[in-house]
Sequence to fold (365 residues):
Amino acid sequence: MLSIVWLVIMVISFIYAFVGGNIEVCADALFESSESCISFILEIGAYMIMWSGFMRVANDSKLTDKLANIMSPVIRRIFRGVKKGSEEARLICSNLAANMLGLSNAATPLGMSAMKKLSEKSINSTATNNMCMLAVINCASLQLIPSTLIAMRSGYGSTAPGSITIPIWIASLTTLIFAIMITKLCEGRDIRG
Amino acid sequence: MDRIGMLIMPCMIVFILVYGFSKKIDVYASFINGVKEGTRSVMSIFPALFALFMAVGVFRASGLVDVICDFISPVTGFLNIPSELVPFALLRPVSGSGSLAMASDIFKTYGPDSFVGRAVCVMMGSTETTFYTTSVYFAASGTKNIRHTLKCALVADLFSMIISIVVCAVFY
Fold:
């Protein structure tokens, strides 16, 4: 998908620039944007590395597990049939907790294991309601500290880089609630063998 | 409100360090391990980021972004939202690196503290790379029929784009 999008954008941009007569500007942009990518990765990469360090501390001191425990009652209401203390409950909660802390390296494998565990109840490779719910919740991100965005803002000279945190919380939380609601509405009955 | 937002990150860092110490883990060693992981993941996103920065740069320089913005400006003008946000909103569910590149392009052009700059941040922070996430998760379980997942996730993305603009309009 992305390969096609990338190719189309590159080719169409150059054709349009050629027709419009600003092909030189376009060629310059090629070099200029490569340069800005290097400075972007140096600056934002530094913040991402720093944040990953702090988050590893949070993870090693079992802060993620604690957050997972707090969320567990809510999770069991959203995912029907997931029992307290079961393997899938643990995996789902840890996946969401890791996502909230921005530990995407840890979150993805946990989410994949949770999906595999949930798929034991599925028939004919068809997703169950719980599987759809887990995917939708993961698509609506909820992050406590939007570290990459804060880093980007400060890199581009913002006077208050962290100020977007609260608006992001409000927007993410409303989106998450909305996402859960529409997914619940679309749920049909699971196919049972 | 801005000040509270600014304090969240430093407070969280102090909390994490003190919490780690109280749980008797080797905080320094953990931090180093995290840095190792972080370095690896920054390295791993770099190639795609590079390619997409180029695409976004060429796309803007060619004037196509302006064409798209002009084309949709009657709608966005009517809704009173900046039209630059629409190309971003379209790219967001498709590519994480691409939307990072586009967001940084918007910061460069309009400044991170402009309305567009803030709105892009909130949009970016409240959504995920939907197509990527769903494909990775369902590939793990070998699921072929994902039923209502993509439909719901994309509707939620659209909702989040709208709510982001509303939240920004209320805050700023």
